Amino acid sequence: MKASKSIGAGLLSVLLVSSVVGCGNNEKNTASSTPSSSAPSSSASSGGEASKTPEKTDTKKEKVKITYSMWGSAEEGNVTQAVADKFNASQDRIEVEVVAIPWESYMTKLNTQATGGQLPDTGMLKEDGVIQWSSEGMLNDVSAMYEGSDSKPLDSLAYKYQGKTLAYAAANEVLLLYYNKDMFDKAGVAYPPSALDKAWTWDEFVATAKKLTVDKKGKHPGEDGFDKDSIVQYGASVENLPWQLETWALSNGGGFYSADGTELRIGEDASVEAIQKVADLYLKDHVAPLSVGQTDDGIQRTIIAGTVAMATNGAWNVGTSLNTAKEEGLNYGVAVLPYMKDKVTLNTGGANVVFSQTKHPAEAMEWLKWYNSEENNWGLISSGIWMPTLEKWYTDESLTRKWVENPNFPPYDEYKSAVVDYARSSAARPAAWFYTNHTTDFNTLLGSVLGDVWTGKTTAKDAIAKNLDALKAAHSGNN
Amino acid sequence: METVSKSSRRRARIYSAEARVAYICLIPAFLGLIFLTYVPLLSVLGISLTSWTGLAKPEFIGFDNYVKLFTTDPYIKDSIIATIYFALLSVAGSMIYSLFIAMLLNRKIPARGFFRAVFYVPYVLPAAAIYVGWSWLYEANFGFFNYLLSEIGLSKVLFIADSSYVVPSLSLISVWLAGNLIVIFLAGLQNVPSVYHEAAEMDGANGWQRFLHITLPCMSPIIFYNLLMSLIANLQVVTPALALTNGGPGNSSRFMTYLMYDQAFVNYKLGYACATTFIIFAILAAFTAVLFKTSNRWIFNEGGDDK
Amino acid sequence: MSVAAYGRLKSKKRKTRMANVITFVVILIFAALVIFPIWWIFRTSLMTNAEIYRYPPSFLPGDWLFSNYEKTLEVFKFWKYLWNTMIIIVPSCLAGTFTATLCGYAFARLRFRGKQFIWALCVGSMLLPAMVTLIPLYIGWTRGLGLQDSYLPLILPYFCGGGAFNIFLIRQFIVSIPRELDQAATIDGAGYFRILFSIIIPAIRPAMIVVALFIFIGLWNDLLQQMIYINSSDKFTIALGLTNFRGQLKQDWSLTMAATCMSFAPGVIFYLIGQRYFVEGITLTGMKN
After folding, report:
1. Dihedral sign (CA B202, B205, B208, B214)
2. How far is residue C244's CA from residue C253's CA, in Å, rounded to a whole number?
3. What ipTM, to 2 d.p.?
4. Are A156 and A202 in a shared domain?
5. DSSP letters of A65-116?
6. By CB neighbour count within 10 A (0-12 exposed, 13-18 middle, 19+ buried), where does B221 fall?
7. What is the DSSP letter of A173?
8. How close A462 comes to chain B (CA, Å)?
9. Please, which residues 59-78 of chain C have a Cβ atom closer than 8 Å to chain B?
10. Please, which chains are in contact with B (at least 3 CB pairs closer than 8 A)?
11. Structure pTM?
12. Which of residues 423-452 of A touch C (CB under 8 A)?
């Protein structure tokens, strides 16, 4: 095996090198190309930069340059750069430069950079990539980052695989139930509960949704003359992106994976039944609009559009879209999710990692640690996009008030109960990608398997049974 | 005897001068073909024999990727069917549509320049934005088309949310985007000598006969080009899946290039993605070969071709 | 002119007029259908984000928020992006069109050894989706040539024939030109390059404009490659600037569509300029008889 390995590598490197031979390739350049990719001097006209070797790290007076990549717009990049400038001014050894890459192309770009050995030193990584990148040896060990530190992130926000801590989430997020208060008032129906101990059962949830679903003639589902093709307002929408569906499988006593992530449980009756219940909201109960998981603008399409009374989705929506909608007059509230058998919500958060291609892991970690203390990404937290990762913000009420009492958020009591306390409650469980490998592959396949379930062309039971072997293969990485 | 050898020598001399000119003309293309296409292609072939993830070091695994593609891959069969179905619909639709529009635009109508620009504009629009625009029209619950349907009392059509409608819906967008074909047809129509038309008209040929016996034969090299181009482009379709459907519902729009993109850039299976590439390549080559083989029968080369 | 002939001419005239009216109506209907989705995008650019998703959908924006465009320009540095894009596009268009014409000429008119083979290579290269060679090329440009955050990996390929599609297009057009034209010139003693420049190029000008147009639009919308090769935001192109409306999970559709509407104007203008030359193509073919 070893021999074939080296043959493969040799063949590959021959091919790759030969692809540039004749274009003035020189080895020196390859060695010196650090990921400090956007040095202002490397403009379009100066193609032959081979002579410039930015290897200044030996001389002690020179600062170590660290590139930090994040997803987001250029403005968001500028804001983060301003924060980094504070860090740069606070000490004289490290200089951090921020590169912002649009969300949609983030992983494509990072993946390409990885193949070319051009990765930044440190950066954000999407949730479902962390364990895979780590198992491919692309991430540095950060377990020592918080050693001896008194303020640690929530334990549920650590990416752990085979007993090792791989990374910490940059933010916390939970899944919630959003609702439109005006629609509830108009129908004379009580708001969904924001306290966990009063959470609705699934049946209560569906019954309420029926009262809030109205067709053109003002009829509700179940009434005579109700026409499902002329519904003008839907009662509920449950987001059915594969990773969010795990909530319902867990809530029904099933799950996607065993607790340690090694076994697949999606074939169990409880899991299949839960998925079917979500599909039936559209198919049988006629309380939900059809969604086939093609877009991730669920809250815009439902609550903000004013076409759906209740919708489940992540806490980030408070800051990404609902705050603007609130300014424009939307009266919305937050509540805990309904439950089937167990009360469950998922928490998640994109990771901050140090790439193993870096030459300066210690400096990169120092920056991450500094940046991850909430005071330094306050902009994202106070807007409602990120929830803090450190425990004290959830336990110390004065800190919680500092965080939540601002116009971007719904009323304090509601948010405190339905989000802050919810996130720390026993209902909150880490999403699968915190402890399971190959979730990207698995979720892609699950999404494709369930495609015809949402429109009722097949049932969850048949679809999953038929593809169980493929799902198993995807989970084990043999796909 | 002597004259024959003399003339053949003379022809040879001309021939070599001609060849020299040809080689000079072809230098740039040759560089491009070698360094930008075939050397990278060879490395793709190399990668397809490994288990490279793009992240860790590659490992040589022979033809395992290909074996897996043909035996256990959950997507590839649906993907090939979806791609060919989409390509045939889109090619047929956009060829008829663009030739028809180009011929109308070639007539003397008022505001001709304006109309030409109108039909061309969809092609200039940034792809991501147009698909989002169309998604609002197609949306299953509250989209504009369904609003129209419900206003006139018809039941809803799920369009891109339904696995049986998604490909025709996407093909319609692709026909709408065919402004580039219209432009080429228009340029081609300009090159049809008007004297032919005038002569035929003298002989009493009607519009349809003139279309059949003059326009079509004169345009045949251009029709061939457009056919080939739109076939290749539509078999390589990827943007609608990236921007709109994520390959769904189910696998109904998981086009081959999207599948490859997903393997390479989302699921980190670069070796596997490269193997998929060769399947795409083989399918494209098969379709192109058929097109070329049959082309001799219907292409009318006015200038002649010495192939 | 006899009365009968006069009558025939008159009825023929009436017939063409009728045909033109029908053509116009048909074109008008098609144009309305084609414009509709574009109107939908434009209308969105003048709405609030909540309005976009509202039901029933409205054909006209409520407040005609032209201020969306001002807001967009704060983020979308149109002129700067335009300038950056032009730095890529202008040399690419010129070089691409020129080299494609050279190659197309060689394939259409000249005889040389290995023609079949090179032609097959050329056609074969069209069968590869650009995405396929992305990674080897990326490694080549960055690791091999050290070109990071540079426009050169985007421009240089166009100095190499401008892509097989364009070579093919030029060749098809040259093939459709009567061969007697350049044969006559050969007898007059003109060299191959003189034939190319004084006979072929004037005749295929519409095709060359089309090629330039395609290179223009291709680069204009080529997000994938630009995204991979360009890092710093002061080098952003129009295509990259457009994706920049997507923040941390946040997408402002009104502003994105406003930017979209601004961004396709240059493409249309370029087309309108090029369109003039299409009409001139006819003059040549008249020479045949």
Report:
1. negative
2. 12
3. 0.83
4. no
5. EEEEEEES-HHHHHHHHHHHHHHHHH-SSEEEEEEEE-GGGHHHHHHHHHHT
6. buried
7. E
8. 14
9. none
10. A, C
11. 0.86
12. none
CA dihedral A289, B130, C154, C132 (to 10 degrees): 50
Roughly how many angstroms between the first and final C-alpha of chain A, as a whole number? 21
Q: Which of A15, A229, A441 sits opposite B43 (nearest CB)?
A: A15
In chain A, what residues touch C219 (CB-CB under 8 Å)? Answer: none
Q: What CATH code would you report for B48-128+162-298?
A: 1.10.3720.10
Contacts with C, B 43-82, CB within 8 Å: 43-44, 47, 54
DSSP-assigned letter for residue A1: -
Please tell me whether residues A336 and A187 are part of one structural domain: yes
Backbone φ and ψ of A120, nearest 5°: -70, 175
State how far the Cα of C78 lies from the Cα of C80, in Å rounded to an integer. 6
Q: Mean pLDDT per segment of 10 residues, for chain B of length 307 residues?
A: 56 75 90 91 90 83 90 91 96 95 86 86 82 85 85 84 92 92 85 76 80 84 90 90 85 92 86 90 91 82 46
How many CB atoms are located within 10 Å of the residue B62 CB? 11
DSSP for chain B reads: -HHHHHHHHHHHHHHHHHHHHHHHHHHHHHHIIIIIIIHHHHHHHHHTTB---SSS---B-TTHHHHHHHHT-SSHHHHHHHHHHHHHHHHHHHHHHHHHHHHHHTS--TTHHHHHHHHHHHHHS-HHHHHHHHHHHH-TTT-HHHHHHHHTTPPP--GGGSTTTHHHHHHHHHHHTTHHHHHHHHHHHHTS-HHHHHHHHHTT--HHHHIIIIIHHHHHHHHHHHHHHHHHHHHT--HHIIIIITT-STTTT--HHHHHHIIIIIS--HHHHHHHHHHHHHHHHHHHHHHHHHHHHH---SS----
* pLDDT tens digits, A13-67: 444 444 433 333 333 333 333 333 333 333 333 333 333 444 444 445 678 999 9
Residues of A in contact with B160 (CB under 8 A): 294
Q: Is A100 on the interface with C (CB under 8 A)?
A: yes
Helices (H), A116-198: 130-135, 181-187
A225 and A105 assigned to the same domain: no
| Alpha carbons A128 and C275: distance in angstroms, whole number | 49
Query: Which chain B residues touch A11 with a CB distance below 8 Å?
Result: 46, 49, 60
Domain final residue pick, A347, A368, A384? A347
Domain with residues C70-288, CATH architecture: Orthogonal Bundle (1.10)
Question: Quick one: A329 and A266 in the same domain?
Answer: yes
> Which of C112, C194, C210 is the best mutation test for B, with the most CBs of B within 10 A?
C112
Q: Is omega for the bond preceding B249 within 30 degrees of 0, making it cis?
A: yes
Please check whether residue A91 lies inside any domain of the structure. Answer: yes
- Domain of residue A301, CATH code: 3.40.190.10
Domains of chain B by residue range: 48-128+162-298
- CA dist., res. C109 & res. C97, Å (int): 18
On chain C, the residues whose CB falls within 8 A of the CB of A42 are 148-150
Q: Using an 8 Å Cβ cutoff, are A403 and A416 in contact?
A: no
A39 CB neighbours in chain C (<8 A) are: 149
- Triad A81, A84, A89: Cα angle to 5°: 125
Query: What is the domain range of residue A296?
Result: 173-347
Count: domains in chain A: 2
Decide if B191 contacts C281 (C-beta within 8 A).
Answer: yes
Place of tokens 């805990």: A336
Say if the Cβ atoms of A454 and B249 lie within 8 Å: yes
Q: Which residues on neighbouring strands pair with residue A264, listed in sequence order?
A: A257
CA A191 – CA B6 distance, rounded (Å):
102
Any idea where the domains of chain C sit in the sequence?
A: 3-67, 70-288
Q: Where is the domain boundary, A322, A347, A372?
A: A347
